[in-house]
Design goal:
This protein is of the alpha+beta class. It is built from 24 helices and 36 strands. It has five domains: 90 residues, Rossmann fold (3-Layer(aba) Sandwich), CATH 3.40.50.720; 88 residues, no CATH class; 189 residues, ATP-grasp fold, A domain (Dna Ligase, domain 1, 2-Layer Sandwich), CATH 3.30.1490; 177 residues, ATP-grasp fold, B domain (D-amino Acid Aminotransferase, Chain A, domain 1, 2-Layer Sandwich), CATH 3.30.470; 173 residues. The protein is elongated, with a radius of gyration of 33 Å. It starts with 15 loop residues before the first helix and ends in a 6-residue tail after the last strand.
Length: 778
Amino acid sequence: MLRKRGRPKILLARTYEDAIEYYTKYKNNLLGVITDARFPKNGKKQKDAGLELARYILTNNYHIPVMMQSSEDDNKQFAYELGIGFLNKTSPQFLHKLRDFMKNYLAFGDFIFINPITKTEILRVPDLKGLRNAIYKISNTSLRYHLARNHVSKWLNTRALFGLGSFLEKFTIDEFVNLDELRDFVADAIDLYRKQESTGIIAEFQESTYDKYVRFARIGNGMIGGKARGLAFLDLLISKYPELTSYKNVEVSVPRTVVLATSIFDKFMNDNNLFDVAYTNICDEEIIKKFMAATFPIEYVADLKKFLLVHKNPIAVRSSSLLEDSQYQPFAGIYSTYMIPFFEDIQHTMYLLISAIKCVYASVYFNESKAYMHATQNVIDEEKMSVVLQEICGQTHDDKYYPIMSGVAKSINYYPIGSEKPEDGIVNLALGLGKQIVEGEPSLSFSPAAPDKALQLLDAKTALQQTQKTFYAIDKTKKDIEFTSDDSVTLKKYRLTDAEKDGTLKIIASTYDFQNETLNDGTHYEGKKVLTFNNILKYNRIPLVDILKNVLRIGQREMGNPVEIEFAVDFDFAKKEIVYFKLLQIRPIVINHEVITTDLTTVKYDQTIIYSRNAMGNGSIKTVTDFVYVKPENFDSTNNPQMAEILGTLNEKFIAEGRYYMLVGPGRWGSRDHWLGIPVKWSQISNARIIVEAGLEDYRIEPSQGTHFFHNLTSFNVGYFTINPFLGDSYYDLEYLNSLPAVYEDKFFKHIRFETPIIAKIDGKKRIGIIYKPKPKN
């Protein structure tokens, strides 16, 4: 019965024997019995067959509702003596009274809590949410009365909540120490059921019914965008694959999410005549000012306020455009994400929330977004924006809010080391908010196949130098926020000593012993704290690696492509060390499957400008004639921000002329930390087709695969080489380049234009990349 459609069924028995058979088979799921007085028994119609059936059933289950219907009034007295209901078939109120019986005794109506002594109504609830709240409001006498008779289970079963109903029916009142423990048990069971049932479902936001157990809802009409689709996809995978929720004391889930659909974006833009502004060439800050001055649609304000009142936590306001995280052109990190703190002054928090939504809308028309549109050959007036509102994983520590860990994991590793394989994947892990990783700042990188062999932790001194020193958190002291195109306006960078005071380093840090130059796992030693995550990666304090392996494997199989996921992890030590693993995003990784027929291992150095044995990408480039490189003799990382601006100007000229180029320079391209590399945005190098990280002897930075910048490179199949010629593992013919005339040259850069195309080839399997010297023009 429970496997059939989720609604109560009517079982029609024509004889006494049929009725007994049905009762015996389904007695654990019966809501009640309606019986005639006369029907066949032992092959003959008997006038008291109904009474005998009722007597048999009540002997087995005294609390089950039984109603006898008969046209003979004499049976009324017999029914009442037996303690069952009676209906006269000839009564003009027959159907009305039958309906009342079904509503009041078979639990088809509201659940009515009564005073068992006076039989008067105490409280009436229409739904599961109301039932959960009522458990704590009714008297002990009423609670005991209803639970002892399985009224709650029966009411749940009539609503097809069979799993919850049958679960509660298994327990008796005597199994609990007291009724307070029983109340908590019933409430917790309802909470868990609502949480599980809401997984994988996008509900329509209803202000009157929305609460913390609605995990994913939408406001408005239209589409929900790529990022929201990815979140809904992750939510569905969690409900589909039991292995993702089978970890002891670990909750794997998507954060509670509400999506503002594209109809709200359209209304906001049209009501405020913003399309005329958006298509102009004004700077980003002017666009922000125009959007901030616009009026947000008033009809959605109440819904947003209800969302804030339910969660009372910091909220991530994230872009989710139609093109974002699509299968072939993922817009990773192109649009803005603002993280807003929660203040008890709800009106002020509402102001911050609506301001952040406006800024996300505005980010569609920032210069970097337009450059990306141009690079992907999309038309900007076809883009629409929905917005994801997401509860941020983490806890408050003094005046800041952050998770203990954030990370980015890929199911493919473009730079495997030693015995690692590309298909093993790669993970970047950091303390605090994920901005640390996606902006290219220091984090711990490891392969899920060998989590205890991270390159940065090969020895104590390397770990001390190359691991994370700072982290991002939401600054809860900053109430007066001036919104700009910089979406980190609400964030602040803190030092590890701040996290040590918060107590968040306990299971993720080790201690460096300066005297012995050793690294001791744990924080109870004297010395400098180093973020190694060894208690997790080496000693499996929490099953992080196993969870990541499962998510990557399932995600890649379901998407049919290698995938990248973003996640956050936090611990609640007050609740028996419950671990919250939150999946924040999933996007496909685009791979070029072009086959390189040339054996690049046989190519001689003197044929090349650059030869790299650590190249990312696949295929060949045959139409580029421009080459831009940083002059290593003049390189100083203090000048990196200035160099990013110069590159942006050069890139604009390449765009205007419809030309592409190859770019070479020291350090990590696109890092937010200018000490690690030139902090270019995508719009400043969007026409580059090969980018090379050229290490210097005194300036060697490991590449980071967790950044949004890096993801967009792979999406466009931009070749990405790492070379360190001073180590003898690669080749860079600077002497050749220096001998050639320049189209443009300044203190930092030299731009060369060849008469014939520069041929580049990348063998993705062997990770070899070559830029050949162009052949002279005939």
